[in-house]
Amino acid sequence: MTAQNTNKIKTDFPKIAILIPSYNECTRISSVINNCLDYDLDIVIINDGSTDATDQTLKEFESKPNNKVTVITHSVNKGKGEALKTGFAHAVNNNYYGVITIDADGQHDTKEITDFLAEVGTNDPDLIVGSRFNNTKGMPFLRRFVNYFTSWIISNIAGQKIEDVQSGYRYIKTVVLKNIKLETKNFDTESEILLKAGWFDYKIANIPIRTIYFLDDFKSHVHPVKDTIKFFKLVFRSNSWKRSFFKSKRIAI
């Protein structure tokens, strides 16, 4: 476990939480949390039915005095989308202004949380997506191609340019979370959020991030076949969602 930096980065923003969905990440989540503790922000972790030592690791953080870590546990694994929705509900119920979502596997550089906060402070967007496409060094070609392709599709359907729809490194205002009804349960939830935010004309910003690919023992929870099928099912379903959305909008007008 890495030592905690006692010189916390001060923030003068409204109440914002760092939200970390986690599933079987006991070997990496400690360093992710410790790095996030450098910020004067609450940290909300969703333990999504982990079967390794994640639960014990998180209990160690919860037991520390004056800690800013809240752990919410699913008794069984429900999928990343459900973990995010649990975290979103917590943010709404506890009157957070917004959340910064970050993965528990160490692939996101926590130092870049500063960039998200700077964008919030300067432009106050409704949603920020961290884009890896300014620095794709180390990204496998197939992953790079799939990310470009899916981002192009989602951007066209959403009506806004979103550079990296598969990035889990984001900032989302709680007003967005209150108004968008999410219907998916897994990794496709992240694309669903962007689609519906685009239809609501929420302001979506893209900022550059880097992704760490040097983890020799890294094992992605994304299934290349199953999750690709889910993506295209999402695209198919989005047509009916879009019709229903704009129909209700016309009725409201």
Helix fraction by DSSP (H/I, runs of at least 4): 40-55%
CATH superfamily: Spore Coat Polysaccharide Biosynthesis Protein SpsA, Chain A
Give unreliable regions as ranges: 1-6
Secondary structure tally, helices? 8
Give Rg in angstroms: 18 Å
Order of helical and strand elements: EHEHEHEHEHEHHEH
Multimeric status of the protein: single chain
Counting structural domains, the number is: 1
Mean pLDDT: 87
CATH architectural group: Alpha-Beta Complex
What coarse outline follows from CA principal-axis ratios?
globular
Say what the CATH topology is. Answer: Spore Coat Polysaccharide Biosynthesis Protein SpsA, Chain A
Written description of the protein model:
The chain has 253 residues and is an alpha/beta fold. It has a single domain (16-252), classed as Spore Coat Polysaccharide Biosynthesis Protein SpsA, Chain A (Alpha-Beta Complex). Helix content is 42%, strand content 15%. The protein has helices at residues 29-36, 54-62, 80-93, 113-123, 141-158, 174-179, 188-199, 226-252, and strands spanning 16-22, 42-48, 69-74, 98-101, 127-131, 170-173, 204-208. A seven-stranded mixed beta sheet has the order 3-2-1-4-6-5-7, sandwiched between helices. α5 (141-158) packs parallel to α7 (188-199). The radius of gyration is 18 Å and the shape is globular. The model is unreliable at 1-6 (pLDDT under 50).
Write the layout of secondary structure elements.
Blueprint: E1 16-22, H1 29-36, E2 42-48, H2 54-62, E3 69-74, H3 80-93, E4 98-101, H4 113-123, E5 127-131, H5 141-158, E6 170-173, H6 174-179, H7 188-199, E7 204-208, H8 226-252
Parallel strand pairs: 1-2, 1-4, 2-3, 5-7
Antiparallel strand pairs: 4-6, 5-6
Helix pairs in contact: 5-7, 7-8
